[in-house]
Amino acid sequence: MNWNNWVRQIHRWLSIAFTATVIANFVTMGLGEPPTLVVYSPLLPLFLLLFTGLYMFVLPYAAKWRSG
What we know:
Distance between the termini: 26 Å
Number of strands: 0
Order of helices and strands: HHH
Number of domains: 1
Oligomer: single chain
Low-confidence stretches: none
Shape: elongated
Radius of gyration: 16 Å
């Protein structure tokens, strides 16, 4: 498995983790005042999704630039 496939797989798993943390956030908000840890828990997967998404966004442009 090459680097690009690893990044795509990590991006997929991060999206699942992000969705789960957002759902947990809404559930705890429905039960009352959520703890700070739960409120900020979606931020880590979100930032990692940002970096992997930007990497995958730039891939076609980098390939075009390398090919000349």
